[in-house]
Design goal:
Strand content: 5-15%
Shape: globular
Structural class: alpha/beta
Radius of gyration: 16 Å
Order of helices and strands: EEEHEHEHEHEH
Strand order of the largest sheet: 4-5-6-7
Number of helices: 5
Amino acid sequence: MPPPGPDRRGAAHSAKGASRPAAPVAGSCRGNGNQRHHHAGYGTAETRHAIQRISQTPHSGNNDVKTWKPDILRCLAGTEKAWFKFVVACEDDVRAVLRRASEADIPPERILIMPLASTRDELNAMRAQAVEWCLRYGLRFSDRLHIAIWNSKKGV
């Protein structure tokens, strides 16, 4: 798979769709220089220090060992600049997010919960419940503004 490239807004996106600053990176997240993680791509301690914002979206519903990298997420969480967004469909998903976040030392106050929805009606049906889960578990809410505005219209 080719390394991530810039999108039309100038941000680079990984193969999994998470945005990150467009910067050349070498070394592992731990900064030992022996490995290269294109999918996380936050490189050396100097690179991580220069990063202003990291937005990482681990896939909450995917238990595949290929996509869940707690060591990399732990490293990112340690920068105190990373926020972690999880898409959830039910309260069991939220509890699973909390278990996984604990495994990667991600503090709950840096977790955003986004309701699973692909239409405005689905979003409206899920929004209040997702907010309730956020309040119950001390998490933050992230809306799906593009769906609220344009519904399921493609290409916007």
